[in-house]
Amino acid sequence: MSTFLLIIISGLGLGSLYFLLAAGLSVIFGLMRVLSFAHGAFLSASGFASWMVLRSFETPSTPQLLLALVVSVLTGGAVAYLAEVLLVRPLKGKELEQLLVTVGLGMVLVALMAGIWGPDEHLIPRPVWLTDTTSIAGAPISNSRLLLIGLAGVVVVGIHLILSRTRYGLIIRAGVENSAMVSALGINVKRAFTLVFVAGGMLAGLGGGLAGTYYGGISPFLGDGMLIFSFIVLIIGGLGSINGALIASVVLGVSQSVANYYVLNGIGDVLVVVLLVATLLVRPQGLLGQKERLI
Amino acid sequence: MTAAPANEVLPGSVALSGRAVNLVIDGHHILVDVSVDVAAGEFLAIIGPNGAGKTSLINVLSVATPPTSGKVHLHGRDVTGLPPHRVARSGLGRTFQTSNLFLGRSLLENARLAANGRDSRLRTGFRRVLKDDPVTERAREALDLVGLGRRPDRLASELSHGERRKLELAMVLAQGANVILLDEPMAGVSVDDVPELVELIRRVHREQGKTTVMVEHHMHVVLDLAERIGVMHHGAMIAIGPPDEIIANDVVQTAYMGEPL
Amino acid sequence: MTRSGALRYGAAGLLVVVLAVLPFVHRSVGGLLPGPINSPGSLQVLALMLVAAAAAITLDLMFGYTGLMSFGHSLYVGFGCYATVILSNNPKLGFALGVPLAMVLSVVVALVGNAAALRLTGIGFIMATLAMAQGFAIAVERGFLGSGGEVGVTFARGVLPDPLRGVLNTRNVYWLALALVVVVYVICALLVRTHVGHVWQGIRENPLRTKVIGYNVYAYQMAAATISCTLAAMCGVVFAIVMGGANPGIAGLHYSLAVVLMVVLGGRGVLWGAALGAVLYQFLNLRLPSLSSSDIVTGLPEILQIPLSQPNFLLGVAFILIILFMPGGLASIFTRLTRRATSKRAGEPRDDDGGVPATTREPNLVS
């Protein structure tokens, strides 16, 4: 039983990481109709930022970890901001070109990181308590997983509050449901686009900072590996739906974890792709997506 | 609103007909029990205020949108629910309210694609496109007819708005359609260009003998061209008949008659 | 045939001849190639560049001409590659039966894969192709069906026919690659000049319009995609021969994106443009790491050295610049120059579609 709980929690932790990327990507696509292939690189870059903060300490304290997380969030946001203003905005209206430019940007950033820091993984020192475990129902749950799940939960609540209570949240929700209306809103559109892109970047940044705690290390390719799974989460959950992304992240993370442990190590990845193909064939708009978007 | 008008059975064959067509989308009853017969070779204009369902009727008659209930017949064949390309190959062509062209291609190319549509088969399509093959000839003829034949290598994006409407017409001709649905052909056309376009449509209708259904707002264009006028209001066809009858009709007058130019 | 048509054919023929005699040229080109031109190492680099050109041309057919953007090309190239090796290694089949069987299976995969993916449009289609490519990549990385896992699988001893085996026969392999790109180019060039090819371009411009004037758009898209992916598998076959085996580097999103980059870089909707982009990409990819350790580069300050040593950095930046400022790709530079030249000679009959479009199209050679 305790092993099962461990596997589930592990899966939830993985799902939380996917969700952080996927949530941002989902809203970005829903509002801007841009599928960003660059956010994986944003995650890696932010991970490196947190590494640069933490690497000078052998065992960093909690405030230092917090600082690293703040730095990674800001890094993600800053890079996303530059990308949106310089690359995405000039191509407004040309969705294919916007997608391709994010592909190019991701490529450039990853190459840059590999050039500066090498392609291998760099270990990120963590506070002692993070490597410890807490006993829950007899299972030794790693604290890093709990931190991930906890923060992801905070993010979910935060996103819901922002979307339902703030003015920009209203614009975003309206725009996601009816993108034609967004153009009618005029000037606010530009700011909403930038805001949403940067928010996705900050979420990727948080993911980058936390990925270090989950995996123990950071490499230039980490974000891209997660990006693929996040896309799959997006499709299964439904493009443009945060709740869909949440459900799909949980389902994917847990089933991947379960399959890898109980069936055959490595089969989890295959299962994920099978689920994706099944979704595309049976219900292409995903669990909670809108039908017109994909067919 | 009065009951649906008696739809006279016209002499000659019926080229296009809609029977008891209803269209409901998201709870909105866009077309309400519309029946209309279009005789072969006649010119029917459809008028009515914005939102009356005119474009939706065109969409249903051209099989772009399947009706919620009711049937569409083309030359006596039931075409309800067929894929649009099949209906196009059976001789039905339409133009769009906003010009829907291949902007990055030349005029000749636009017309040629339309000309090829009718007979195209994947099997035989793997023949080279030659300058003097019959398909290209048909395309050139269609362009000449609308007055765009002189420089067919221009890109469609280089045309003025009025010229684009002409190109739309040329494509319908090149397609070899014998039933033509025109959705607001005068939309956005400048006052100076209207008479020329009207003449063109008239020539196409008379000389080529095309059955024409036209949705329009410009009343004087309608009165100039139409042999019969159908009036739509709130999704229903409230009157249909020759122009002088329609003008005198009280029901039509109390309903919005469309903007006079 | 018009004058400019004859010129184009002549230039193309000359290029093929020049490429064909390269294995007889014993000249060194500095660090550009690992040795003199006709050394096995250099010939292999050139062969890989030619195979990449062929693969890019096949993607251009469905992406540049029909408007179907696919992130799944690595699936088809990879399948052709792996199937060739695995089937040829089977003692009951051998190379002579393995290759044709691999091609037959590739056609089936192309049909099934595209029939499924084309049920979706736009982003959905892209994601479907991505999903299938990833599925395949995962399968070969885990070694399903004898695909060897991370190290891949090579031709067993004696499987490859003699003329294609061994370092000394690299020139034959090179000629095979040259033949591949010529065949692929000719097939695609002929196809885009047919009625079907014109319909494909109509679909790219305005799929709704195409449907409404009487074309079964799905059928035409299936034709484009199936032909494109089958030819891609053929490139995979030759790739296996050039490399002596198959490995996961040719599967997965990374390779698919590379092919897309090649096409956009060189010029989509222009067949030789795609080939140009591919040749450039593959050259930088293969040679930049050694070039960057040369004296010229190590002398540069580190801030320049790091980006210059990373092919993906240069290629990615070029890609971004092309998308922002020159959507027609590198080919559009050349086409713009020739248009200026031909427009000066007014009065000469033009055999192409005229006009200077924002994104360059292949002039329809009607002769």
UniProtKB/TrEMBL annotation, chain A:
<feature type="transmembrane region" description="Helical">
    <location>
        <begin position="6"/>
        <end position="27"/>
    </location>
</feature>
<keyword id="KW-1133">Transmembrane helix</keyword>
<dbReference type="InterPro" id="IPR052157">
    <property type="entry name" value="BCAA_transport_permease"/>
</dbReference>
<keyword id="KW-0029">Amino-acid transport</keyword>
<feature type="transmembrane region" description="Helical">
    <location>
        <begin position="34"/>
        <end position="54"/>
    </location>
</feature>
<protein>
    <submittedName>
        <fullName>Branched-chain amino acid ABC transporter permease</fullName>
    </submittedName>
</protein>
<dbReference type="Pfam" id="PF02653">
    <property type="entry name" value="BPD_transp_2"/>
</dbReference>
<feature type="transmembrane region" description="Helical">
    <location>
        <begin position="261"/>
        <end position="282"/>
    </location>
</feature>
<feature type="transmembrane region" description="Helical">
    <location>
        <begin position="146"/>
        <end position="163"/>
    </location>
</feature>
<keyword id="KW-0812">Transmembrane</keyword>
<feature type="transmembrane region" description="Helical">
    <location>
        <begin position="99"/>
        <end position="118"/>
    </location>
</feature>
<dbReference type="GO" id="GO:0022857">
    <property type="term" value="F:transmembrane transporter activity"/>
</dbReference>
<dbReference type="GO" id="GO:0005886">
    <property type="term" value="C:plasma membrane"/>
</dbReference>
<keyword id="KW-0813">Transport</keyword>
<feature type="transmembrane region" description="Helical">
    <location>
        <begin position="192"/>
        <end position="215"/>
    </location>
</feature>
Automatic annotation (TrEMBL), chain B:
<dbReference type="Pfam" id="PF00005">
    <property type="entry name" value="ABC_tran"/>
</dbReference>
<dbReference type="InterPro" id="IPR027417">
    <property type="entry name" value="P-loop_NTPase"/>
</dbReference>
<keyword id="KW-0067">ATP-binding</keyword>
<dbReference type="InterPro" id="IPR003593">
    <property type="entry name" value="AAA+_ATPase"/>
</dbReference>
<keyword id="KW-0813">Transport</keyword>
<feature type="domain" description="ABC transporter">
    <location>
        <begin position="16"/>
        <end position="259"/>
    </location>
</feature>
<dbReference type="InterPro" id="IPR003439">
    <property type="entry name" value="ABC_transporter-like_ATP-bd"/>
</dbReference>
<dbReference type="InterPro" id="IPR017871">
    <property type="entry name" value="ABC_transporter-like_CS"/>
</dbReference>
<dbReference type="GO" id="GO:0005524">
    <property type="term" value="F:ATP binding"/>
</dbReference>
<dbReference type="InterPro" id="IPR051120">
    <property type="entry name" value="ABC_AA/LPS_Transport"/>
</dbReference>
<protein>
    <submittedName>
        <fullName>ABC transporter ATP-binding protein</fullName>
    </submittedName>
</protein>
<dbReference type="GO" id="GO:0016887">
    <property type="term" value="F:ATP hydrolysis activity"/>
</dbReference>
<dbReference type="GO" id="GO:0005886">
    <property type="term" value="C:plasma membrane"/>
</dbReference>
<keyword id="KW-0547">Nucleotide-binding</keyword>
Automatic annotation (TrEMBL), chain C:
<feature type="transmembrane region" description="Helical">
    <location>
        <begin position="70"/>
        <end position="87"/>
    </location>
</feature>
<feature type="transmembrane region" description="Helical">
    <location>
        <begin position="313"/>
        <end position="335"/>
    </location>
</feature>
<feature type="transmembrane region" description="Helical">
    <location>
        <begin position="173"/>
        <end position="196"/>
    </location>
</feature>
<keyword id="KW-0472">Membrane</keyword>
<feature type="transmembrane region" description="Helical">
    <location>
        <begin position="43"/>
        <end position="63"/>
    </location>
</feature>
<dbReference type="Pfam" id="PF02653">
    <property type="entry name" value="BPD_transp_2"/>
</dbReference>
<keyword id="KW-1003">Cell membrane</keyword>
<feature type="transmembrane region" description="Helical">
    <location>
        <begin position="93"/>
        <end position="113"/>
    </location>
</feature>
<keyword id="KW-0812">Transmembrane</keyword>
<feature type="region of interest" description="Disordered">
    <location>
        <begin position="343"/>
        <end position="367"/>
    </location>
</feature>
<feature type="transmembrane region" description="Helical">
    <location>
        <begin position="217"/>
        <end position="243"/>
    </location>
</feature>
<dbReference type="GO" id="GO:0005886">
    <property type="term" value="C:plasma membrane"/>
</dbReference>
<feature type="transmembrane region" description="Helical">
    <location>
        <begin position="255"/>
        <end position="281"/>
    </location>
</feature>
<dbReference type="GO" id="GO:0015658">
    <property type="term" value="F:branched-chain amino acid transmembrane transporter activity"/>
</dbReference>
<dbReference type="InterPro" id="IPR001851">
    <property type="entry name" value="ABC_transp_permease"/>
</dbReference>
